[in-house]
Amino acid sequence: MTNGWNFWIDRGGTFTDIVGRTPDGTLVTHKLLSDNPRHYPDAAVQGIRDLLDLNDDQAIPLDQIDTVKMGTTVATNALLERQGEPTLFVTTAGFADVLRIGYQTRPDLFALDIDLPEMLYTDVLEIKERVNADGEVLVELDEQAARQGLQQARTNGFNSVAIVLLHGYRHTDHESRLAHIARELGFEQISVSHEVSALMKIVPRGDTTVVDAYLSPILRRYVAQVDEQLRHDQHSPRLMFMQSNGGLTDAYAFQGKDALLSGPAGGVVGMVRTAENADLRKLIGFDMGGTSTDVSHYAGEFERAYETEVAGIRVRSPMMDIHTVAAGGGSILHFDGSRLRVGPDSAGADPGPASYGNDGPLAITDCNVILGKLRPEFFPSVFGTDGKQPLDLEATTTAFQALAKQISAETGTPQTETTVAQGFLDVAADNMANAIKKISIERGHDVSDYALVCFGGAGGQHACMVADRLGIENIYVHPHAGVLSALGIGLADIRNIRDRAVEQELSPETLRELEPQWAELEHNGNEYLLNEGVEPSARELRRRVSLRYRGSDTALTIPSGTFDQVLHEFEAQHSARFGFISPQTTIILESIQLEAIGAAEQLSFNDTLDDSTDPLLGTFPTTMAGTTADTPFIDRQRVVPDTPIVGPAVLVEPNATTVIEPNWEGRITANGDLVIQRTSPHTPKSAVGTDVNPVQLEIFNNLFMNVAEQMGVVLENTAVSVNIKERLDFSCAIFDPTGELIANAPHLPIHLGSMSEAIKSVIANNPEMSPGDAYVLNAPYNGGTHLPDITVVKPIFDETTQKRIFYVAARGHHSDIGGIVPGSAPADSTTIDQEGLVLDNVLLVQDDRFLEKEIRNILTRGPWPARNPDQNIADLKAQVAACERGASELKRVITHYGLDVVHAYMNHVMENAEESVRRVIAALTDCEFVGEMDDGHQIAVSIQVNLEERSAVIDFSGTSGQHPGNFNAPKAVCRSAVLYVFRCMVNDTIPLNAGCLIPLDIKIPDPSLISPHPPAAVIAGNVETSQLLVDTLFGALGVVAGSQGTMNNFIWGNDEHQYYETICGGAGATPTSDGASAVHTHMTNTRLTDPEILEWRHPVRVEHFKVRQNSGGQGAQRGGDGVVRRLRFLEPMTVNVLSSRRKIAPFGAQGGEDGLVGINRLLRADGSTEELPGSTRVEVLVGDCFEIETPGGGGFGAFEQAK
Predict the structure, then answer these.
(1) Cα gap 473→456, rounded to integer Å
(2) What pTM, to 2 d.p., does this model score?
(3) For the CA atoms of the chain, what is the radius of gyration?
(4) Are residues 847 and 770 in contact, defined by beta-carbon separation less than 8 angstroms?
(5) Looking at CB atoms within 10 Å, which of 243, 865, 877, 880 has the fewest?
(6) What is the dihedral of CA 925, 931, 937, 941, to 10 degrees?
């Protein structure tokens, strides 16, 4: 129906955008504040009234409206502000804390006050029931107890319940029976995990189910509120809402889990539909608003993410794949004494940027005001305290002059307000370009032949600058770019996506057996479309399958088809995304998915261009690309089509401003689109000098880090082993020609400071390297840490002089490298050879040829060879691929800036880190501490501060001699601990590099526990002694109480199965914060395998996994609690445990109490129980359980002070 009005609405956090399509097809737009309670109760309804030109006392003529289609941030805002419906979380007994513990990682590696997301549920009900991975009922559902618990929750006022049972995604009977009881008891919102997200992994499925229960009632109330105002006399327009997956649904079928990207998804649909009309098929979406920028990638099909984190909550529901970076018009500008930084904080709408006239801080919008790109006379006068003033140019100029003066004084580099403003814009443009690389270049897409589709209020001001950084030469700006999300909501299809778990080997037979399930899904999909009023001719059903290699967690979703078609498409996608295929590895069909689509009618718009008057509004000076020139300001709506608009120029329109930079040219097409193209090739060579500049310092900081992060993405994607691919036990870094660390992506702290020792070892041992070579090593006495951590090092050569100009390296924890036990982590080793094979500067790649035969010979020799050499080789190839990515990205940087500039900024970046550490030292006094081990060994440290030089001596004299067991930590580990501690002390986002260590003179007794000599064993030194080193240093500095002080290494296996995990515990309290509970601390941050995956793959059962209540030390600030993890073995296994703090408790600080020590406990199937020491190796039989209680953190400050 198109004989009435249609309204398409994007209700954003600050503004609500409305596109109205009149009965004759003309589009009209409107923008108003989302919240303005003094003037109207609801922005969407008020916007409709405004466009219909109604007085306050006039009713809305509902018979003149066909449809209202909306996207809304109501759910997102409720999630961010934690204002959802009080929700009861119902789960299997023993798993009350499964979502709280999650995957045990902390979000910020270097924050001593660990800030974990607040849980959404208010209370938990544990249910006596248990089903195993194969569907066998181990404990019958206790319906009577469940009914009592649910009744009590109703009595306590709960109306919303999330039901999530272990393996309930597939074995649904118990969940369904609980849902039936909940309905009988009158719960209004019942979210059941197998209906919400029918896929394996209890953690994201549980989070998603809780999100759904938490937000759906809020959405229902909002829908009812809108619907009430759009309904009378039994007539109401069709009300539909935009889902995160890019499809519309009926208002009353709109669920909480599908609402989190409602508005931004509309932007992606709008981008694609409008660009297709302009014959553009390969697109980068660039949606820049006030607080952030959303970027997206499109190459013929909407790209969706199936597991996303929103506001700290894991959501497993199909969403448009949108990457957000904290750079918007309101992003605040900072100068830290040496670098210019943008965001992540925002000035918001109130007070807004300085130019808004409300005494706000300087922000990105102000840069464009100072540079003349935004002029008050062409901007709405809605600012100041009365909301009627123009942009405040005077306040902005004054603030920039003061900042320029400060930067000039502190850096010695003369600056003006325009150079500072341009500098901040350069930093922001680099940040946005890096975000686009994450969704394009890092996934193997060459964006040079893409169009940058620019929308959002601020996108047009920065599009040319961002495109230049990516080599993109075409920019597309729709006439309604300022309200494109609302337009996209109007152009979207109706979509419904349903998943079903399968978890079977891919084969022709498996595909045939799925037909009945497909038939059922398609019946349900057709029913859905019928209920949505979709005509049969407009319906489409798409089958997809999710496939992964056995042993991997990373599934790819591809179109279904015949066995040969599915296999070919999977291998093609896997090769494109991850760089390899593995024909000998079984492919698992993880799940099937049906998408039911009701195609939107093709709409035509009657956009009339106003060419009745001269489009030139005036000529004014602007500064672009460092040059000030008189620039025409042009009314976009009056430009005659196909007239060239040569940059520099500024196009002004009601909802946006578009800046055409020099060497770009714009044209308006016949249908009103703006196409901007580069007129001369972008000069790759930059004019940046070698002297330090605060703008380039920040850009190079981010640039070096981005290279290391890209290496990490390649390694994670192309690795085969669970340790690297899923647990993320790896690190990537780049180094200068002497082997000093320049940038290390924030992967694992234990690797951070220790990798440069490996590079220096390669340099010392291989004077004659050639281009195309790479080396591999793990030797603890020659640059390594412990044997499972294997490092691949690649030199990079100058192509003209053939000199070595950089090194790149990738370190990964291999799941087995030989030795006397599976997993290469024996609890009782006394010499290095018992722990595995030693690789000491072995040539791995020669002339770009991987020496597979040679490395296989090394891995398979000796008394205890590697148990899975194929996996070792596959992971080594992934590490080489990561180094190749680092090398190619660094060469790109050199081509752009020149080698002299890149080398100069390597030094400047190190000097910046050095200065940050010196500032920390200036606030320290002399201090010392002794950290004790359970077996009587100790680490002693004294820190002597030279305030005049702002330097310190870190002296470990008094540390115990070499350990007779395996707790010896090579020197590289000690350096790593010192670097980590001082990086934490800086408490700011500085790059982690060798500059941090320059002010520190580290004295290590030799030989000793922290400087062993061969052939001493070292396996526990890397994982356990490293934690004691950190706690000892922090004990001396007095800024945080002792954390759990161990990684609780739990390694078990037999000939068929091997598994290694580290287990979280309690964090130490600080002067300002309680310690976090159930989280990894200090030198590790590896992920834990989801309980359902663990039980599916291995013959074990997680009996319980919960927070160990009250194990943290009391104090003015409490220590964090540890956890209790009990595993039952269903086959005989060898168990090795490497752990500490089983006798010596994590210390309290400043009068705070100690945390509780950990406990290792063996519970035999015959009922006997035995407590075991911190390091232990034991054989377990069928039915035996191993339970680990991890230590709590120490408290800070005397407990009385808290009262």
Answers:
(1) 20
(2) 0.87
(3) 31
(4) yes
(5) 865
(6) -10
